[in-house]
Request: fold
Amino acid sequence: MDIVIRPVESGEYEELGEITAQAYLQDGLLDFGEGDAYLGELRDVAKRAAAAEVLVAAEHGRVLGGVTFVPDGGPMADIARPGEAEIRMLAVARAARGRGAGEALVRACVDRARAVEGCTGVVLSTQRAMRSAHRVYERLGFVRTPGRDWNPLPDLDDITLLTYELTL
Reply:
């Protein structure tokens, strides 16, 4: 496997934003398709990179996917409590799936969390339909935390996000 995990470069923001947006769109994970307000957030890698650490999986110089790592709170955290790191917006281009890029990105986040002084765990939110991602999380030792499941859009009942946690 020649996949390298590294910080995103500013010249890759647009490419990674489109990979992330297309992953969510193609998998039917956005309620309103191109009209979904969250789509802008998925595409705005510059905003994420200014507030957290954005990593990419690259192979032979080509970006395959990316993830946002939030080391300890901050504006990009959704569910992290004090002492927890959070993983957000994991996405791999459809053509690159099944080759280990997603798992490598999650492992890199876990490694970074272990290097953060006082960090006791890693948390993340995921959609019910992201079953292949759930398998990756569970294989790496994450466990479901139903008590932390939440709804980012309380007006829409069917948007409950599932949560996972890895104790370090």
Notes: Residues 101-115 form the longest helix (15 residues).
